[in-house]
Amino acid sequence: MDKELLKNLIKQMTIDEKIAQLMQLATPFFKGSSHEGQITGPMEKLGITNYMVQNTGSVLGASGAKEIRKIQEEHLKENRLGIPLLFMSDVVHGYKTIFPVPLAIGSSWDVNLAKKSAEIAAREAAVSGIHVTFAPMVDLVRDPRWGRVMESTGEDSYLNSEFARAQVQGFQGTDLTNDLDRVAACVKHFAAYGAPEGGRDYNTVNMSERQMRESYLPAYKAALDAGSELVMTAFNTVDGIPATGNKKLMRDLLRDEWNFDGVVISDWGAVKELIPHGVAKDATEAARKAIEAGVDIEMMTTCYANGLRSLVENSEIEESILDEAVLRILQLKQKLGLFENPYRGADVKREQEIVMCGQHRQIARELAAKSSVLLKNEGILPLKKNQTVGLIGPFAESNDILGQWSWLGAKDDAVTVRQGLHKKVTNTKLKVAKGCGVEAGTEAELEEALEAAKQSDVIVLALGEDSEMSGEAGSRSVIQLPEVQLKLIEKIHELDKPIIVVLFNGRPLDLHGVFDKSNAVLEAWFPGTEGGNAIADLLYGDVNPSGKLAMSIPYSVGQVPVYYNYFNTGRPKDAHDAQIRYVSQYLDIPNEPLYPFGFGLSYTTFSLRDIRPSSNTLTAEQGLTISMILENTGDVAGEEVVQLYVQDLVGEVVRPVKELKGFKKVFLQPGEAKEVVFELAEDALRYHHTDLQFKSDKGEFIAYIGNSCNNVTSFPFELN
Ligand code: BGC
User: Fold this and answer.
1) C-alpha closest to that of 680 among 631, 632, 611
2) Which atom of ligand 1 is nearest to the CA of 61?
3) Does 687 sit in the ligand 1 pocket, CB within 6 Å?
4) Would the pTM of this model clear 0.85, i.e. be above it?
5) Is the CB of 90 under 6 A from ligand 1?
6) With the C-alpha atoms ordered 390, 394, 399, 402, is the resulting torsion angle positive or negative?
7) CATH fold of 606-719, please?
8) Where exactly are the structural domains of the chain?
9) Which chemical reaction does it catalyze (predicted)?
10) pLDDT tens for each residue of 539-561
């Protein structure tokens, strides 16, 4: 069907059919769903009729080929014009084969593997009947109190943009119409949802347009440039107006300036939330503001269903604005080939074959290992197979390692640390004890753990936050481990045996009481289905750690937000004698995070030498080529992430002390050396000026090259 045919179809639609097309409801509302019929009460409350449901445009949260085929079949029996439903779900870091959480994926700095993971997630979702995933989430994050940092690839707009692009390509492929193993991507949450005041979810976001364009918008733009078919609005305000009713953001910027012609969907209930936000007096006004702002689909509330008709009848909005929104939705259905094949990839038999297949699990294992970050190692890792290991802690045998946004993944499918270690060593070499729960424990549990520890040569302490402690609505003001776990480590520490801490968490934690009482720390995040295997691979050195932090680990919560690309201030701490009081500093803690962005250790050592820029000046026409030699100087193979940062010494507005401009992840055998080359062009030096123009300034710059943001070698250059 081409656009004209779709327009003709719209001409045949009644106004109620159009409005229903803009509505998205959860699975239980639909005939054929396994929960069918449980929803009469909620329907009445929402003020919607069976007729509206029969004409609804899309479904939230359905999964499984059998159920989705059935719902579609029932729908098409009753839908007058035969318009198929769109099925949308959150397949954020895997469908059933769960990959590490996105913050971990960001820490892999492995864009190709991230793309592969999105491709697998899409394949599993598509064969199970899903058409659209609510991913990637690309919100830039700087505040670990916010529970949703785990859904983001971190604190840097360049890194986030690389992953945004890769994930969209992985989900969508290059031909959504014919490649039935792909799903449409929906980049979220537009815009700046990752910057809520105080790290409290859904809270106000307050920043200048310039800062938003500079740091927060690039990753959404990268996702759109990669072809993301949908955009989801954010819950927060942007310059005083909730994103979901924000014309300047959604129409002027997204539609007009960026020419986005795909579908915009509100976040869950966000249209109705315009009322408590205080910009709409009732549901009808909320509907008007959202549709005027360019929101095509209202997720889960029914302001459109109940309000749009009267708005058109009273000439408060034109019917053409509905037609526009309907057209975009029908175009997406067309692109997915649903008019020809409303069941698309949904295939019960193939679903059984490919969902959670061995190959998918293998990639999940690889990515989990690459995403873990070795923060500390006083020579005790990797473990030796003749050592007796005391595996202790609430995560020793826990399968709560998938993260909060893996609702289709089953914990029972997850490999625990114990199971992973068992594949490496025999029972006799492993003493396992829980020690305590995540937030509470008993004396008996503690005693048992101390006993196990005494019988061991080395202790692996598996600690962390359970998955509900981060994720959506998972903000916390204290980001240390719960006290009971700090007590556990303290008691074990008293035994004076080597301690390796493996951390499971969705946010960077305040690691006081952990890093200072251990000899090695491995940040495993929520590693996903294959977590236990990946961790065992790392602990025994079958895989060499190569992850680098995508988000700073704060020294303590008092310095949050803490991030690497800060401004120098007029009184930088290191510019004065440390005795002087009047500099930008805390009196009680350092300014620096405990572990900075880009940081992560390896079991081998690398040397980075012969760094040679092609020139000490660059121009708009002629960029710089920076070459160097990276050598593996240790005795095991490994990967290193070489990072290029730039500082603009004098700007029209203040420029960050460093900004990531490139990175390369390089694998080297022991003794092997390779040339690493970066190209730096003038456009990488552009930034948003006070008039919002995106351009560079001639003048002096410094390039920094290294293996974390603060372990670098630098050289000056000029832009002429
Ligand atoms: C979240 C979104 C998610 C949506 C649908 C909302 O609460 O903010 O990220 O896609 O629910 O499940």
Assistant:
1) 611
2) 12
3) no
4) yes
5) yes
6) negative
7) Immunoglobulin-like (2.60.40)
8) 371-559, 606-719
9) Hydrolysis of terminal, non-reducing beta-D-glucosyl residues with release of beta-D-glucose
10) 999 999 999 999 999 999 999 99
